[in-house]
Amino acid sequence: MAKKEKKSWSTRDLLVTIVIGLAFGVLLIPVTWAYAGLLSLGGIFTRTILGGLYFLPAAFAAYVMRKPGATLLASVLSALPSMLGPYGLIVLMIGGLIGLVAELFGWLLTRYRNFSTLRMLWFGVASGITVYLLILGSMLRTTAFEPSILIAALLVSAIVFGLCSVIAKYLANSVAKTGVLANTALGETTADEI
Amino acid sequence: MQTLYQPYDSPLHRLNPLSKLLVSIPQMTLMLLVSEPWTPLAFVVLTSLNLLILGRVSLRRFLRLLWPLLVLVFLFTALYPFLVRQTLVQHTPLLFEWGIIKLYQGGLYLALVTGLRIMGLLISSLPFSITSDSADFVRALVQQAHLPYRIGYSTLAAFRFVPMLQSEMSVVQAAHRVRGVDSQPGWRGSLERLRRSAVPLLTTAIRQAERTALAMDARAFGAHKHRSYFRRMRFKTWDWIYILGSWILSGLILLALRYFGLLGSLHVLQIL
């Protein structure tokens, strides 16, 4: 019964997950608009670092909600405010892709139970490597790049996603201290610990 | 929520948002696969004409929408040739040399192809972004794409929070300024600002979401498997004509490019 309750979605769970995605979407709007300008600073590396920021909502939702589908939903929803801007559907596609990859590794590495800092780090690193290979591989004709640049960008992606995953955890813990996450899986876990 | 959408009575505005998606997504997928400049160029022209003629977008507005994309593509194209693997392009003429920085014609060509592909990728979604109301899009997802209405209508309810969140974000930033919170310049400062803004923003948003969820539950939201709709979205004959017409036109463009040897090879994952 308890397992069923954990997997089923109440209206509150749905709204909280959607709002997590949208709130991060609002935070990321300036990043999306600054994208063009930032590209001139570091090209492929800037893209990779910004990709990590788009992983924040996925990691945050995974840590807070601990339910199958929450990561994907939050990631897709975080793309919505930017999707209706100049970069359009591509932002939604990237949000969806990051969400799918994060959902897969969230299930594989955490099983929606173990969210230690180390697991969160690996969750981010694995997602970063996969997202890098899928997004950059298909969008930028990366065969043309110097292999050293490709490897460096892959490492940057892994590090940035890993860091963002850990940052999302600490951000969620900071929000949890305000008491608003008391009814989420994270809040219940914290209450159990107390 | 501030979007690119502007209400107007044009053929594109009257279409179901999903039909515009069904045209944009195959075009965007194609842009990921191509390796020659002519295909993205053809689709940039096709989409621009679509917007100007069927979307009734004024030339002035179209150019205003286009400039961020042009800046992105320009910056990208300017930087790309210097990151290209030398062995791949050093057999082509050297255009410019300054110390270790060398610009080959082949590198410039690859940059142009990539820039055009990104341009094609971004512009393909404009017919959808400019002419589709976000609420209609969610309604169409629920009514035609069979997205569970609990997710669809919850999203629609949460959409209402976005302007509130945007103004909340301004209030938080103003509060920081009033209190003289020091902000470092550069990326460290940006990260610090993100952290300072995120906690109050998320707290407000989650609190608001919980209240809304309670109100929705109190009105028996989600109690029944099926529900009625105040505003019905339909898939009309014009939607099918638009989808099939666009697919056929795109197919003809590809056949013509292939006939003239301009299509080039298609790569599934271009990192391989």
Describe the structure.
The complex is a heterodimer of chains A (194) and B (272). Chain A has helices at residues 2-7, 11-33, 35-53, 56-65, 70-83, 89-110, 117-139, 147-177, 185-193. By secondary structure, chain A is mostly helical. In chain A, helix 3 (35-53) crosses helix 8. The mean pLDDT of chain A is 82. Chain B has 272 residues and is mostly helical. Chain B has two domains: 11-137 and 234-259, no CATH class; 150-218, no CATH class. Chain B has helices at 11-14, 17-33, 38-54, 59-79, 86-89, 105-123, 126-131, 134-143, 149-159, 161-178, 186-218, 237-259; strands at residues 94-98, 101-104. In chain B, helix 3 packs antiparallel against helix 12 (237-259) and helix 4 (59-79) packs antiparallel against helix 6.
Strand and helix map with partners:
The complex is a heterodimer of chains A (194) and B (272).
Chain A lengths: L1 H6 L3 H23 L1 H19 L2 H10 L4 H14 L5 H22 L6 H23 L7 H31 L7 H9 L1
Helix pairs in contact in A: 2-3, 2-4, 2-5, 3-7, 3-8, 4-5, 4-8, 5-6, 6-7, 7-8
Chain B lengths: L10 H4 L2 H17 L4 H17 L4 H21 L6 H4 L4 E5 L2 E4 H19 L2 H6 L2 H10 L5 H11 L1 H18 L7 H33 L18 H23 L13
Antiparallel strand pairs in B: 1-2
